[in-house]
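Weekend entry, working from home. Most of the wet-lab plans are on hold until the incubator is repaired, so I used the time to fold the two sequences that have been sitting in the queue since the last round of cloning. Logging both here for the record. First:
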Amino acid sequence: MYVAVKGGERAIENAHAWLAEERRGDPSVQELSLDQIREQLALAVNRVMAEGSLYDPDLAALAIKQARGDLIEAIFLIRAYRTTLPRFGASAPIDTGAMACDRRISATFKDLPGGQILGPTFDYTHRLLDFKLAADGEVPEAPMRAAEADDVPHVTDFLNREGLIEEAPQDDTPPPDLTREPLEMPADHALRLQALTRADEGFTLGLAYSTQRGYARNHAFVGELRIGSVPVELDIPELGFAVEIGEITVTECETVNQFKGSKTEPPQFTRGYGLVFGQTERKAISMALVDRALRWEELGEDFVGAPAQDTEFVLYHADNIQATGFLEHIKLPHYVDFQAELELVRKLRRDAGARDMQEAAE
């Protein structure tokens, strides 16, 4: 039970004013612009867009600024704003095979048509603080730019030619929209992927790590990781064809996993899949590992009790906004509840004391 806090309106207004002052920081320091956040904190912007389910770098930058860098709070702001937007239609599925790749690597095949593209990555840095950045030093321009858009076949297509990997599931049935409908079980593959796409990156990373440490027997190779821009098309019924309305940057990961086969399927590799807004490769890889772990039942594998295999556990706890709301609600007044608990504990202590005195008397 919650009770109203009387006389708290002025205190709340003062708290808001103090929050705005703290957000601004020292007035003698130049204020961050949205352009600076969008361009120089791009990975934070990408995460907010992905977990907020809204692709808009400018709005994500605004949310980060308003939230003082608290990304979960920024994601909350983006999701709340998203609910106010009208919906004009649904875009056609994006074709990642026609991606203009900024980064494309494979841990399974060295020689790829189109080559491996290392792209902008921390993978080969020494993780040493660069004090030139503190001095606002000049950054040299990269010698190569993004690749031109072209058909870039997926690595798993090479395995598929020999029947060494399962066929990618084909289902044109539109899944329920998690932005409009609550999550319900059982969740099919498409709905699970939708939930994992907007799941908390840290939670998904922890689950993925657990699968690699033996909690799900999920040894995987990164078949391919690609980052780049893809066109977005919208079907116009009046025209009878799709019209390109813009481009978005996405990260796609396909993992190749072992599979010993079953009574109906020969031994072959299986897939894990991840697709996320922006350059978000840690999340995409984590998503692919968890996706594969959740597929144990449809592949006829044993349930070993691993958290990453439990669909309800994963999907019901992966949403950081729901988790934050439930966690932080305990900060609200619980005076009546606590008084009831307090009186109960006092009564139990009195009863226990009375029993001790009676036993001592006997």
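Second, folded right after the first finished:
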Amino acid sequence: MTTLIYSVRDSTTMLRRDIRHAMRYPMATFAGAMVPVVFLLLFAGVFGHALSAGIGMAVPPTGGYIDYLTPGILLMTACSAAEMTALNVSTDMTEGIIARFRTMAITRTSVLTGQVLGGLIRAMISAVLVVAVAVALGFRPTATVIEWVEAAAMFAFLAVAVSWLTVSFGLLAKTPAGANSLSLLVVVLPFISSAFVPTATMPAGVAWFASNQPFTPMIQTLRGLLTGTPIGNDALLALAWCAAISLFSYLWARNLYNRNRAA
């Protein structure tokens, strides 16, 4: 068999291991999936009326503020799933199982790839739950079948990118608590984006940062695909950011994993 086939086989094995871990601790998996739902309920049900009045014409006309909000919550869904991936990686590194994996005839990076694939599956399941709750709250997407497929692909690419980044955080941190702290970066950053209000409504300095950080074009792309708002060049920026984050994070994670002799 070729190296690629071995890598796919070993990554699939590690994915099955990650799924078994998730099934062994269902409450942790459930809690991770519920975090974006709680944010959705909080911003739609508690802050939605005030925010909708404040941003005016930026709200899509079909379903009100919930239509504006849901794409941003979807991005946070990917970030929440990636945070759990960081914890899983850090736990593996501190429990000594990686030392055993290093003695086995498996592709070295398959240990990390399996975690990323597991994070992707968790993110996709959580995204379905978020959309279902959003629809119950009044979300009315205008996307065609093709646009739904494109939105799902964009979301998957985003989930893989942030998962590789948090894998690096999990390898960099000395403890699971440290990995959790580092991963808060990807959870907090969406708050300074167009997830909840348009960047034009923010103070000048904050607006510049929010407009130029990676998550804003990703949110705008999802919003455009799902609700029909203009996308412009945000789709290209979103794909470029996802590709750059994925490549950088993969190389960083591989270097950290190979350099870690304590594992």
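Plan for Monday: verify the second prediction. The radius of gyration is 19 Å.
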